[in-house]
Amino acid sequence: MTEPNEENKEKDVKNNSEEPITVHVDELKDAVEKEIADAGGEDIKIGVYVCQCGGNISDVVRTDLVAKELEKFPNVVVSRDFIFMCSDSGQELIKKDIQEKGINRVVVGSCSPFLHETTFRKAVSSGGLNPYLYTHVGIREQDSWVHADHPKEATELAVHLMEAGVAKARLLEPLKPTEIKAKKHALVIGGGIAGLQAALSIAKADLKVTIVEKSHFLGGRVAQWDTVFPTDEDARAVLNRVIEEVLANPNITIHTGTELIAAKGYIGEFNIRLRQQPRGVSEDFDGLDEAIKVCPVEVPDEFNFGLSKRKAIYRPYDGCVPSGAVIDWEHCTKCGECLKVGKKGSINLDETPHEFDITVGAVVVATGFDPYEPFKGEFGYGEIPEVITLPQLERILSKDGPTKGKLEVNGHPVHNIAMIHCVGSRQKEGVHKPQPDGKVNDYCSRVCCTATLSAAKQIHEHFPDTNIFDLYQDIRTYGRGHEDYYINASKNGVTFLRYFAEEIPEVTKSPEGEKNPVMVKVKDHLTWGYEVEVPVDLVVLAVGMMPTPIQDLIGMLKVSQGNDRFLLEVHPKLRPVETAIAGIVLAGTAQGPMTIREASYAGQAAASKVIAMLITGQVELEPFVAKIDPERCEGSGECVKYCPQEEAIRLETFTEDGRTFQRAVVSPANCNGCGVCVSVCPNRAINIQGWTLDQFDAMVEALAMEVSVLEDA
Amino acid sequence: MTISKEEAKAISELMIAKRKEHVETAKAAQQLVKENNAIRRKLKKALKSGPHTIPQLAEETGMETVDVLWHIAAMEKYGAVIEVGMDEDEEYYTYSLAKGVKK
Amino acid sequence: MTNKRLHVDALVVGGGIAGMQTSLDLGDQGYQVALVEKTASIGGNMVQLSKVFPTLDCASCITTPKMSSVHHHDNIKLLTSSEVQKVTPHGDGFIAEVLLKPTYVNNDTCTGCQKCEEACPVDILDEYDYGFNARRAAYIPFPTAIPYTAVIDMDHCIFCGQCIKACPVPDCIDFNMQPEVIEIETSAIVISTGFKVTPYDAKEEYGAGKFRNVIDGLMMERLLAPTGPYGHVLRPSDGKLPDSIAYVQCAGSRDLTLGVPYCSRVCCMYAIKQAMLLAGALPMADITIYYMDIRTFGKQYEQFYQNAKAMGIEFVKAKVARITEVENQDLNVRVELIDENSQVVERHHDLVVLSVGMLPNYDPQAVFSIDIAEDKFVETPYYHNSPAATTRPGIFAAGTAAGPMDIVDTIVTAGSAAADVAAYIQSHNGHKAETAVETQTTVAERSVDHD
Ligand SMILES: Cc1cc2nc3c(=O)[nH]c(=O)nc-3n(C[C@H](O)[C@H](O)[C@H](O)COP(=O)(O)OP(=O)(O)OC[C@H]3O[C@@H](n4cnc5c(N)ncnc54)[C@H](O)[C@@H]3O)c2cc1C
Ligand SMILES: Cc1cc2nc3c(=O)[nH]c(=O)nc-3n(C[C@H](O)[C@H](O)[C@H](O)COP(=O)(O)OP(=O)(O)OC[C@H]3O[C@@H](n4cnc5c(N)ncnc54)[C@H](O)[C@@H]3O)c2cc1C
C-alpha cells in the first residue's frame, strides 16, 4: 500500500483461505474469488478521467479543475480531462495509463452509464484489466445538463460525484460474467410480416425458430389490405412470398392459435409455456360451404372489421395459411349442425386447448398493431353508417371483401368521399377524448397519409367518377415512392382542405331528403380559414395505429412500454431493436407505426441481434448479482421470503463436522441484482457484486466530505 | 526534434524533387501562404492595440468582414488568437492576440 | 501488379453509420468483414452533426464509440482512403479490386501527435467545417477521426519539408508513398455509400453562394457543434450573433424543377432540432420555420415538434419565393403565406438556413453492376420482402445509399443488410460463423498494411 486508506479501515477483509463448509463448496466459492485473493495484495492505483463531452460537460463544468482536484485524492495516480473520452483517442489514454502507469482501477466521469459504461469497460479490458475494475460517474445528465445556470456549483458537484466514484473504485474487486449455454433456438411472437421476416432470417443462419401466432392464420394485418403502396402490388402476393419461404424452411416450426401463458428464464434459456386453441376442423374437411350454411351462429367478421358477419365455423379468408377452417369457440353453441355435413370425423367439437413447453435462447416480440377504434360519435362513427375507417375501406375495395370490391356503403353507391386524416393520431390533450388509460394519442402513425392517398388512387382508377375531398393537417408522404401518391392525387383532382388539430372537422347526418347522406364541415386554412361545407356519400377516417394490447405478455416478459404504449427499445440509435431485458428484441409495429418495408427491415435487424446472441451457443450474463457471505449468513431465510424473482435465491442444507445448518444460495442466472435481499438480510451477509454495501458506505462518506473551494470557476 | 545536417539535406533534396512533380499546385499553394501571411501580419498588428471585433478589424485593415472572420477563426484554432469578450451591444465577440497561449 | 489478397465473408463499401453498423452486426455474428472507406476517416456525415434528434444526444457521443468498436473489432478489417475500382464474379462471390490511395503518412506508426500539423505553414479551407475555418496541408481530418493519423494533402503542399522535420517517428511521413491495389475475395457486398446534400445554390432565387448569410443545414450543424468553427453560432458574413433566423424547408426536395420530386425525410426534423438548439444557444433570437408540410413521422418525432412549438419557435406554412440581400448583409425573405390567403409578404432575417435534401453520394452502376432507381438511389427491387437486396444477388444496400433516411432508420437497415448477408453466405458457400477464427488467421497472415 502506498498510501494509508481510511475508507478501507472498516472494510471487513474477506478471508478466502479455507472454506468451513465441506459440501457444495463449488457453489459458494468460485474462480473469481480466487482471482480476488490473488489480486489481494496489490496497490490500488486509480486513474481518473473527466470527459468534456465536446463542450456538453465542459461548457458548464470546469473539467480541468475537476481533474486537478481529483489528483489530490488518495490512490489517484493520474487524473485528466479530455474532449471525448469515448473516442478512440480517449480510450487509448486509459489503455496507455494502465500499461505505462500501472493503474488498476479506472473512474470516468462523463455521460450517463446507460450510454457508455460498457464502452469504457471494454477499453479497460483491452488495456489488460478486469473490466469490472471500473466506475462510471454521470456528470452530464446528472450535472452539466441540469445545472447549466450554475457553473460554479456544477463544478463542485462534479468533484463530489467523482470523489464518490473514486471511493467506490478503491473497493472494487474483479468480477467475472456468468457464462451459460444458450439454446440455439429463438421464439418469435406474432406471425405478421415483421415476425415472419425475423423468423426467416434467423432460420437462414441455421438456428431453430418457433413462431407463435395468436390468430388462426399467418400474415397479420397485411392479409386484410387490398393493394399496397408504394408498389401497387396485391397485398396477399407480398405476404405469400414470405409465407412460402417460411413454410419451406425446415428450421421453422409454426404454432397458430397459440399464445404464451407463462415465461421465465433469461437470455440463453427462456422457458416458455404455450397454449394452443384447437381448430376443431381437420385440414381435409370437404364440407365447409355446407357447414357454414347450416351453422346458426352469426357474429361480426373481424377480418372485415365488422362490415359483414361470419359464422362460428369459418375460414378467415380464402387462401389463408394454414388453409383449413376453424371453430370460433367463444361463440360456438355446440349445436352439432356442422357435424352432419361433409366427411365424417372431420369436426371435433370436444377438442380442448393443448398446453406445452418450449425452451428458447432468445425472444422476438412482433405482436403488431390494432387500428385505432374511434369512439362512438367521433366524427359520426358508429352513429352514421356512412362513416367508416380506412381499414374498412380497404376491405370494401378488396375483391374478397364484403362488397366484393364494389364501392358501396349502406347499400348505396358512392360518388363523393371525404377522407379525414389523423383520426386517433397527433391528438391534443383537452381537444380529444383520451383512451381508458387517460392518455391521448399524441404521436403520428406514419402510414396513414400514404395509405389514404393510395386508397384515393385505387378509387380513381376503378371508379373514375368519384370526387374525393382530403382533410389533412400535414401530408406526410415521406417514404421512397410515397410522394408520388400526393402528386398523383393533386393531378387526379383530389380537393385538399387543411384543418388544425384545435378545430377538428365536424361530421353530421344530412337532413332527410338531402342528396348526400353526410355533411362535413371544416375550417379550411388553404382558403382564408373559411368554414367549408362538403356534402358527401362516404366519410373515411384515416385511423392511426395502436399497439396490439399485450398486457399479459408485457407482464410475463417484463419488457417496457413507452408513453405512447408501444414497446420501448433501449436506445433508438445505439440499440434500436433491443429491450432492456437481455435476449428479448422487438420487431415491427409492436414498437411503433411502420410500413411493410420498415417492418421487414426491423424484423431482419432483430434477427441480426438474435443471431449474434445465439450463434456461438454461449452467452455471458452481467455479474451484478447477489452474493452470499457464507460466514455471515445464518440461514434466516428472509432473503428467500422477499426475493421477487423466481428461483433466484434458496436455502440449502449443509453439514460440517456432523453439524447441519442452512445457508442461502444464489443462482446467478436467475438473479437480476435488484437488491431486495440485501436490504432484508439481518446479518449484512448479502451484497450485490459490483455494488456492495461497503462501496455504498464509502461513496456516501465521500459525498459528505467538504470540497476545497475552487478557484473562480 | 533535432535533425542532423545530412538528414536535413536529404529532406530538402526530396522536397525539391517533389516540387518538380507538382509544380502548378506548389506554386499556387505558395502564393496562398504568402497572401495569408500578409493578412495575418496586418491582423496581428491591429490586435496589438487591444481586443477587436470582426467589423472593427475589417475597418482597420480594409478587409471584408467575411475574410477577417475566416482568418481569426483559423488563428484561434491554431492558438494565435483568443476570444476575450463581447462588444457593448453584445452583438460581436472580441478577440486578442494569445500571449503564448497555445490551444 | 496485384499481389495482396484479403479473404473475407463480406465487403462493406462506405464507412458512415450505415457501413459501421453493418460491419459491427456481421462481425458480432462471427463473419469476417472488410470495410472500405473513401475518405481518410470513417464516420460519414454523422460525425459532422451537432446533436441528433430525437434524443438530442451529441452526435459524437453516439458515433465515436461505434467508430472505435469498428476499429478494434477482431473480425473487421478497416481500409480508409480506399476505393473499390472493379468487381468481378468469383464462384458464388466476388473479387473486388481496391485502390489504397497514398496518405503520405504511415498509418501504423503515426501517433496522431499533430506535430506535423503544427509545423505546416499552409492554411486552406477546412472541408470538415464547410470552409468556415482553416486546416493545414498536413492534418488530422477532425478531432475524433479514426484512424487518428495525419494525412498530407499533396494538392496544397508547398514542399517545405517542415512536417518531416517535426515528425518524431522515423520514416512515418513518406512523400514517396505510392497507390496500392489489393484484391478482396468476398462472398457478399454491402453498399453503404451514403448521401450528399442537394447543392445549396441550386435554387438561384434563394441566393445561397452569393449571399454569405444564406447557409444550408449541414453548415448550421457545424456552427452548432461544440467543436465548430467559431465556438459559437455566428453568422458567416461578419461574425455577428444572429437574432432572427429563418429556415426554408424543402429547399431542394419535393421540387420537380430540381429533379428531386421526393421528400428527403430528415429535413423537417433537423430544422426543428436546430431551431431548438438555437433557442438554447441564442435565447434572444427569433426563429421561424417556413414549411409546406411538417413531416415529423418517426417515433417520438411529433412530440418533438409540439415541444418546439411550445418553446416559441414560429412555424409558418408558406412558400418562399425569393431571398434578397439588404443592408448589413441581412436578408429579406419573400413568402406566400398559405394560411393567410396566400398573401405575399417580405420578412426580415439576419441568417437564413436552407433545409437542403438528400442525393446519393455514389453511383454504383459501373463498378458493381447494380441498378439505380428513378430517384438515383440504389434500386431495391424486392421492396417489401427483402428491402436490403439490390438487383444483383449477393450485393445488398444499407442506409442512405438506398434512399433518404435518418440515423435511427439507417441503423435498422444496417441490421437488416447484415441479416441478408448472413443468409446469403449460409445458402451459397456454407460458411459457418463458427469457423471465423480460422478465417481470421488467414486475414492476419495476409495483412495488407503498408510496410
Ligand atoms: C389501413 C392501413 C393500410 C395499410 N396499407 C399499407 C400499405 O399499403 N403498404 C405498407 O407498406 N403498409 C401498409 N400498412 C401498414 C402495415 O399494415 C404494417 O406495416 C404491417 O401490418 C406491420 O406488420 P407487423 O408484423 O408489425 O404487425 P401485424 O401485421 O399487426 O402482425 C402482428 C401479428 O401478431 C399477432 N399477435 C398479436 N398479439 C399476439 C400475441 N399475444 N401472441 C401471438 N401473436 C400475436 C397478430 O395476430 C398478428 O398476426 C397499412 C396499415 C393500415 C392501418
Ligand atoms: C443537416 C442534417 C442534419 C441531420 N441531423 C440528423 C439528426 O439529428 N438525427 C438523425 O437521426 N439523422 C440526422 N440526419 C441524417 C443523417 O445524417 C443520416 O441518416 C446518416 O448520416 C446516414 O448515414 P449513412 O451511413 O447512410 O451515410 P453517410 O453518412 O453519407 O456515410 C457514407 C460513407 O460512405 C463513404 N463513401 C461514399 N462513397 C464511397 C465509395 N465509393 N467508396 C467508399 N466509401 C464511400 C462516404 O465517404 C461516407 O463516409 C441529418 C442529415 C442532415 C443533412
Key structural traits:
heterotrimer, B: mainly alpha, Arc Repressor Mutant, subunit A, two-stranded antiparallel sheet, elongated, C: 451 residues, alpha/beta, FAD/NAD(P)-binding domain, 5-stranded parallel beta sheet, 25% strand, disordered C terminus, binds flavin-adenine dinucleotide
Description:
The complex is a heterotrimer of chains A (713), B (103) and C (451). Chain A is an alpha/beta fold. Chain A folds into 5 domains: 6-175, Rossmann fold, CATH 3.40.50; 185-277 and 353-368 and 548-619, FAD/NAD(P)-binding domain (3-Layer(bba) Sandwich); 288-340, no CATH class; 370-546, FAD/NAD(P)-binding domain, CATH 3.50.50.60; 626-689, Alpha-Beta Plaits (2-Layer Sandwich), CATH 3.30.70.20. Residues 1-32 and 34-38 of chain A have low confidence and may be disordered. In chain A, the strands form 13 sheets. Chain A has a 5-stranded parallel sheet with strand order 10-7-6-18-31. In chain B, strand 1 and strand 2 form a beta hairpin. The longest helix of chain B is centred in the middle third of the chain and has 26 residues, at 23-48. Chain B has one domain: Winged helix-like DNA-binding domain superfamily/Winged helix DNA-binding domain (Arc Repressor Mutant, subunit A). Chain C is an alpha/beta fold and 451 residues long. Chain C folds into 3 domains: 4-101 and 179-194 and 361-450, 3-Layer(bba) Sandwich (FAD/NAD(P)-binding domain); 115-166, no CATH class; 199-357, FAD/NAD(P)-binding domain (3-Layer(bba) Sandwich), CATH 3.50.50.60. Helices cover 23% and strands 25% of the residues of chain C. Chain C has 10 helices and 24 strands. Chain C has helices at residues 17-28, 59-72, 115-119, 162-166, 217-224, 267-281, 301-310, 365-368, 407-428, 436-445; strands spanning 4-7, 10-13, 33-36, 51-52, 57-58, 76-79, 82-90, 93-100, 123-125, 134-136, 138-139, 151-152, 180-186, 188-191, 195-197, 214-216, 244-248, 286-291, 314-325, 331-337, 343-349, 351-354, 358-360, 395-397. A 7-stranded mixed sheet of chain C has the order 16-22-17-18-19-20-21. A 5-stranded parallel sheet of chain C has the order 6-3-2-14-24, with helices on one face. A 4-stranded mixed sheet of chain C has the order 1-13-8-7. In chain C, strand 9 (123-125) and strand 10 (134-136) form a beta hairpin. Chain C is globular, with a radius of gyration of 23 Å. Chains in contact: A-C, B-C. At the A-C interface, helix 5, helix 6, helix 9, helix 10 and helix 14 of A face strand 5, helix 2, helix 7 and helix 9 of C. Bound molecules: flavin-adenine dinucleotide (FAD) (2 copies).
